[in-house]
Amino acid sequence: MILAESDRNMRDMVARFGVAIQSIYDDDPPFAYTVGLTLRKHPEIAIIGLSMQRSFPILNEMAEWVLGHGHVVEAGMTCRVQGLDFEFVDVIARSECFLTAHRFYGKRVNGLQAIWTDPHEDAHHRAGRANPLRQPFLGIPAAWRQTADR
Questions:
Q1: DSSP symbol at 36
Q2: Does residue 133 have a pLDDT over 70?
Q3: Which among 31, 35, 17 has a CA at the least distance from the CA of 104?
Q4: Whether residue 126 has pLDDT greater than 80
Q5: Number of domains, the chain
Q6: How many CB atoms lie within 10 A of CB 134?
Q7: What are phi and psi of 108, to 5 degrees?
Q8: Which residues sit opposite 81 in a β-bridge?
Q9: Is residue 129 predicted with pLDDT exceeding 50?
Q10: Residue 139: how many other CB atoms lie within 10 Å
Q11: 26: pLDDT confidence band, cut at 50, 70 and 90?
Q12: d(Cα 35, Cα 123) in Å, to the nearest integer?
C-alpha cells in the first residue's frame, strides 16, 4: 500500500514537473536520483553522499538543463553546480540503482552518476582517494578508464 501511494505521488510529480527526485536517506551514504528523464530519452541522474538539502536543488538544476533547455548530459562531461564540481559517469547496474525509474519505465532506463568533488580536497577519482563510505562509484570515471587503457 505504501509503495503504491509513493509511486502514485512520484508519477504525479513527473506529470506535473517533468521530473521527480527519489531519495533514500535512511541509508548511509544518502542517495538521490531523478525519475522522469527517461521519458525524454535521457539518462536519469544520481548523486550519492550529499544531504537532501544539497542534492535536491542540484538534481533539479541538472534536470532543468534537459527539460527546459534540451541539453544532453553524457558520461565524461563535467560541470559546476551550486559550488560543486561534477563529472558524469555511466551507471553500470541501472536496475539496482534507479529502482523507481526501472519500475516505471523498465529496461529502457539508463543512468548517470554525478560524481562530486569535495571543495577541500582534490577530486576523489582523480587523486585515487575515493571514499567508498562517502561516495561509492556506480560506474567508472573517464580518468580511470584512460589509465587502464594505457
A1: S
A2: no
A3: 35
A4: no
A5: 1
A6: 13
A7: -80, 0
A8: 84
A9: no
A10: 21
A11: confident
A12: 27
